[in-house]
Structures are given as structure tokens and as C-alpha cells.
Design a protein that fits this description.
The protein has helices at 17-23, 27-33, 65-76, 86-90, 102-109, 141-152, 164-170, 195-198, 215-224, 229-237; strands at 6-11, 37-40, 53-59, 78-84, 132-134. With 242 residues, the protein is an alpha/beta fold. One iron/sulfur cluster binds next to helix 1 and helix 4.
């Protein structure tokens, strides 16, 4: 009998929210387990020794020397390496540090700072080749399930290049941008079901930019509504898009 693909999850510096969201699949997660062998899952059981894997999902940012070493070692032993969540894909909330004086910030947190790594926040792909990025803060569990199925079928998933506005308008939400509020939806990769807009909250861009965002058109809309460009730039800092 053909052996099951070996899958592992690793968590670099993160809040573990993307792992939690994968577990939130509940019964569907248990269904996946019939077809795979889970070698490592930090929230359930963590094995320190890195082995050979077919597919690895890595959550979080490489923020310390240890994180970077672990990431490179995992890459060497993995067929498909997936960046799981926005921290891993492009930096997310921790990347705010890059926009400030990080040496000043660290003094507000730690008394003794000399031995603490204080690297710039960078995505996984700046350190190792990444086969697929599944963005979101946290990831969308249904999209994770779809991606796992694609990978198990031997395909690299491809997320449709549709903006958040596409799903937002299917839901017939009132457009916040047209009301003069900053909403990044037209620039951002959809797939989250426009979940924030359902609660009348603007899209802050947690899934990252589309491949070709129409930024010039977007800025024209901001100008039409006399929205301050500085406020727009600050909103790009939230999830590391600036
Ligand atoms: S992407 Fe968001 S939910 Fe996932 S680990 Fe990073 S901060 Fe947590
Ligand atoms: S509210 Fe935001 S996401 Fe929805 S259509 Fe308007 S700009 Fe797009
Ligand atoms: S609406 Fe925007 S901020 Fe909210 S989950 Fe979707 S991409 Fe992320």
C-alpha cells in the first residue's frame, strides 16, 4: 500500500492564529487526517527533530537567528513548502516595526537589549524558495482545506486574482469607499468572503495586494473624496503593505 504523504506544520514567531484556524476545520480536519501523516503540529504535539516531509506549512515570521536556521533546515528536507498566513507571506502586523526606528522601539520593551535579535521583518521567500503562499490574518479555513486538497492531488494551488470588492459586492454590502472611508478592498486579493465588510468594517488588506493592483485609479477615488493620502499610507502599515 502506498504510504501517506508526510505533512508538518511549523510555527516561527507568530500568534499561532493560523494553526488555530486550520484546526477550526473540525471534522473536515479529521477527514484530511485519513489521507496524510501529520509529523509535526506545534499546537498539538511538537517534535524538535526536523525530518523529511512531503508538504510543510510554515506560520509566522523569521525574526530570530534560530527561526532563520530552522527555516533553512526545513526547506532542505521538504518537497513543497507553503507560507501559511500573512506573517509568513509578507510580514503582517510585526512588519510595522520596519516603518519605525526599531532600535528605539526595542528600548520600550526590554531593559537589556544588546543580546536580543532585532532583525527587519521579512517574508519567508526572502530566505528560502516558497512553493505557495496562503495569505490571511488568520488564513481562511475553507481556503486552507482547498489548498491541502490541491496539494494532495499533486497541484500547486493558484488563488484567483479577484479583489475583495468582488465578494463584497456579491454580498451587496454598502461600499465604504464610495462613502469616503478608506477601504483597501479594490487593491487586495480576495478569497476571504469580504468578511470584514460583513461587519461594516473596512478592508485593511490582510491578504496582501493583487498581482497588478490599480493603485493610480484608487488614488484618484481617494482624491475625489478628499481623503488624505497620509491616512491611506498609514492604513498600508497595518499588515505590512507599505
Ligand atoms: S498571519 Fe495573523 S493569525 Fe497568522 S500567525 Fe500571523 S498574526 Fe497570527
Ligand atoms: S466596501 Fe470596500 S471592499 Fe466593498 S466594494 Fe467598497 S471598496 Fe470594495
Ligand atoms: S476583508 Fe480585507 S482585512 Fe478583512 S479578511 Fe478580507 S482581506 Fe483581510
Amino acid at each position: 500500500m502506498k504510504s501517506k504523504p508526510k505533512i508538518a506544520f511549523f510555527s516561527l514567531t507568530s500568534c499561532s492564529g493560523c494553526q488555530v484556524e486550520a484546526l477550526n476545520l473540525g471534522e473536515e480536519f479529521l477527514n484530511i487526517l485519513k489521507y496524510i501523516k501529520v509529523e509535526n503540529f506545534p499546537l498539538i504535539k511538537e517534535r524538535k527533530k526536523i525530518k523529511k516531509y512531503d508538504i510543510v506549512f510554515i506560520e509566522g515570521s523569521p525574526i530570530t537567528k534560530e527561526n532563520i536556521k530552522e527555516l533553512k533546515e526545513i526547506r532542505k528536507k521538504t518537497k513543497f513548502l507553503i507560507a501559511l498566513g500573512t506573517c509568513a507571506c509578507f510580514g503582517c502586523v510585526p512588519k510595522m516595526k520596519n516603518y519605525k526606528d526599531k532600535d528605539e522601539i526595542i528600548k520600550n520593551v526590554y531593559q537589556f537589549t544588546k543580546k536580543i535579535d532585532n532583525f527587519e521583518i521579512k517574508p519567508l521567500k526572502d530566505y528560502v524558495p516558497v512553493d505557495f503562499e496562503l495569505p490571511g490574518c488568520p488564513i481562511d479555513k475553507s481556503e486552507f482545506y482547498w489548498a491541502v486538497c490541491q496539494l494532495l492531488a499533486g497541484k500547486i494551488p493558484k488563488i484567483s486574482q479577484r479583489p475583495v470588492c468582488y465578494e463584497c459586492q456579491l454580498e451587496e454590502n454598502e461600499c465604504l469607499l464610495q462613502k469616503g472611508k478608506i477601504c483597501l478592498g479594490p487593491l487586495i486579493l480576495g478569497g476571504c468572503g469580504a468578511v470584514c465588510l460583513k461587519s461594516n468594517l473596512q478592508c485593511d488588506g490582510c491578504r496582501g495586494f493583487l498581482e497588478n493592483p490599480k493603485t493610480e485609479n484608487y488614488i484618484k477615488i481617494l482624491e475625489k473624496h478628499e481623503i488624505n493620502k497620509k491616512d491611506f499610507e498609514e492604513s498600508l502599515e497595518i499588515f505590512g503593505l507599505k
